[in-house]
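Progress report, Aim 2. The chain analyzed during this reporting quarter is listed below.
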Amino acid sequence: MQSLIIANHAATQAVDHCHSSRLRIVSELQFPWLPTADGSGQTVHPSVVYFPEKWNGYAYWMAVSGYKNGIAAYENTHIFVSNDLLEWTAPPNFTNPIDTAVIGDFQSDPNLLFKDGVLYLYYRDGNTLLRRMTTDGSNWAPREFCTSDETVVSPSVHYFSGQWHMWAGKQDEGGGLYRYQSNDGVHWGDGRRCRTSTRPNLTIWHCDVWRDGALYHTVASAGTGGYSTLNTTQLYYGSSIDGENWYIDELPCVPKGIDQRLAWRIYKSCVVPHGGKQLLLVSGGDKPGGTQLSAACWTEMSAFPKPDFPPIDERWIDDYGTMDAGERKDYGWFKPFPYQRLRGIVKLEHGGTLVVRQGADPAPAYTSVQTVELDAAKETEIDIALSFPWVNVSLQHAGSIAGYVRNFISLLR
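Predicted structure tokens for the chain:
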């Protein structure tokens, strides 16, 4: 573990071009051998949970996809354990992979979560999201089928405030960043598209999200041209104070080519909070059809100020979709400055209520609330003055069955 913790001068010089990102590398990349079932050691999409006091004998538990030469037939989920980040093995009395594809032609996108003594594994079989769990790391419960109204990719799942939360891309949209919520971690509804500060031609594909106090963080694999040009992906750091409005750094924290083994692209990666530093697990490849590898390094946050919200577009809400019976959709808190009015048109197939809350802070203790009753299938014009530093907009669907929503609201100076 010492060789990962100590950064030498050469390593620091090698990553100077990353310092424009708020998350910067402070050690050399290490490429540990991962004993995959196919014998190649090639993997992508790592997800790691750290246990300071060790859990079932190990400090680090990893879920990762085998991906020999980028061939889908080898893309199955593996579980590895380690105490030093260098030597990795399968858990005792456990044989990799944990599962093989039976729904689609491959498995992908594993994500680990620890809650109340149980280690949860989320992963995809084809386009189907599955979940398994264990209390000892060696014996895993049968797969559970997770439901969602959308096809999600690269789930990053968390549990806090009495609810399950998931950030993921949307297959049908070719990427982006969406937030989902669930009462049981199995049944997920529609996602809410997050607002990000990425430039227009940069598409987020795979992400990992973590929370540190009240601040949310992400490392996201993003490239130009969306899904069709994944060979352009590099790793970007972003932050958010509400989990839905994200400020993404303009330049990558891990550019492709930082190591010759990662010359082609930087794929899905993850961050593991680790005291005052962050452990970063990076994955990527050297060329199409070439070697796909996962590496580890240490990072730290820079000292320069962290923007809390991305710039706001004047066309703020552009929601053209459906809402379930009785569903409430929350568009999140945002800072309207320098805008002074909300104006637009809202239409719900079965009617409902639009609620605009304003206050000094993004909290339930708002100062002002305005409600607009929406008649069924009727366009309702919205024109509301903004008088406080923070604003929250939500929509309540009154129908007893699902129906369409048309919500188009702009911000005006």
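The first strand starts at residue 23 and ends at 25. The helical segments are 2-5, 9-14. These observations will guide the mutagenesis work planned for the next reporting period.
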